[in-house]
Amino acid sequence: MTKRNFLVPWLICGLGALFYCYEYVLRIMPSVMASDLMQTFDINAFALGNLAAFYYYAYTPMQLPVGVLMDRYGPRRLLVIAALACALGSYLFSHGNIHVAHFGRFMVGFGSAFAFVGVLKLATIWLPPTRFAMIAGWITTLGMLGAMGGVRLMGNLVQNIGWVEVTNFAVIGGVIIAAVFWFAIPHHKKYSPPANNVVKPTLSFKKLLREVVQLLEKPQIWLVGLVGLALYIPLSVFAELWGIPFLQRTYDVPSIRADHLVSMIFLGWAIGSPITGWISDQLRNRRMPLIIGSAMAAVIVVLILYFPHITKAHLGLWFLAFGIASSVEVVVFAIAREISPPELAATAMAITNLLVMLGGVVFQPVLGMLLDMFAGTHATGSLSVYSGRNFQDAMAILPIGLILSVVILLFITETHAKVIGAPEGADNEDNAERSSSNNYSREKLAATV
């Protein structure tokens, strides 16, 4: 293999990873702009949560068809369209009234739905299957690190130049990424794939629908999805939107320091996701790591919410621990795969991911509604009308959800890291080797953060 043949595939996949990092920054953008958005659009907490959730209104339902679209039309054209959708959505978000901002946020969510899927599709085309699991893990970690850096960088920029100007940078970034995709990713692959990198025929929408209906009839899929949802709420609701306002009102910390503290949750996920997955594999136990992680996350969030005199001195470490504990959420995708027939594994993980993402759809605006209710006001334009106690009362949904996940886990089948119904002695690696690299990529892409 020539040096060029070795480097080009990694560079192309690196471009896809850059887009995933970019879309994650767009995802958490409203959290560092919360006060400015409320003032600019003259909205209350519920309306702010609803504005942020428009991202998930597009992102969540797209999790099922996006893999089929990637298989059918290829990553190059779809990633160009997706990056342009993110750029245009960002522009509309900051250059119109609240209704235009809703549509802009929706477009950002639509374009972002292709990011993680796209880079994994590029990996299936350009890299051998033996590297795929490693790549998927590193991409997930990169997304968390991008979110962490994005929170810190945007927090400083918003303070210094304003939220509209920061959004303009995001618009320019999306256009540049789209242009790079168009010119740097070949339309036809010029380098031969490894002999074992076989891609089977694509899955039709009709067959996908039949698989979805078949799996939705399984109670275990719903239970696994609810556990994943409860563990993802700390990220989608707290870290991505309400964490910074909470710190400002409850701990009385300035905006920039609040940005840095919340970013520690993303760092915790970046560290914890691969470690907890590895531990679960080594122990061949799925439920116990989830139970321990859920219980630890519940205890930590209770301390952060209701005992500031205990946590204030080392708040960054508490947030880091909170992120590591809740990152055990990645194990639910392994359960979803293992409790389903092998031919439905990819669809099972996609459905699980859809249920997980409902946390952002439902609870970002719900928490805002609870803030308005506990504050007893419909005042708009400022966070100052909400007290620290209001935030504490509204955020009770976090520990409640985590405690419920522990209870639900008692009713979930323990798979012992083995596909149910597989021959005795078979393990996940054996089963994975029987699947094509294309099917394996669809399984992994469902496990998006």
How would you summarize the topology of this molecule?
Elements: H1 3-32, H2 34-41, H3 45-59, H4 65-73, H5 75-94, H6 98-112, H7 115-126, H8 132-161, H9 163-184, H10 205-216, H11 219-251, H12 255-283, H13 287-306, H14 308-311, H15 315-326, H16 331-338, H17 345-375, H18 388-394, H19 397-409, H20 428-434, H21 437-446
Helix pairs in contact: 1-5, 1-6, 1-7, 1-8, 1-9, 1-11, 3-6, 3-17, 4-5, 5-6, 5-7, 5-9, 7-8, 7-21, 8-9, 8-12, 11-12, 11-16, 11-17, 11-18, 11-19, 12-15, 13-15, 13-19, 16-17, 17-18, 17-21
Descriptive overview:
The chain has 449 residues and is mainly α. The chain has a single domain (3-189, 201-446), classed as Growth Hormone, Chain: A (Up-down Bundle). It is built from 21 helices and no strands. Helix 3 (45-59) runs parallel beside helix 6 (98-112), helix 7 (115-126) runs antiparallel to helix 8 (132-161) and helix 13 (287-306) runs antiparallel to helix 19 (397-409). The chain starts with a helix and ends with a helix.
Shape: globular
Which parts are unreliable, with pLDDT below 50 for 5 consecutive residues or more?
190-201, 426-449
Rounded to an integer in angstroms, the radius of gyration calculated over CA atoms is 21 Å
Number of domains: 1
Mean pLDDT: 84
- Determine the CATH topology: Growth Hormone, Chain: A
Helix content: over 70%
Briefly, what CATH class?
Mainly Alpha
Strand percentage? under 5%
Structural class: mainly alpha
State the CATH architecture. Up-down Bundle
Largest sheet, described in full? Answer: none
Number of extended strands: 0
The N- to C-terminal Cα distance equals 34 Å
Q: Helix tally?
A: 21
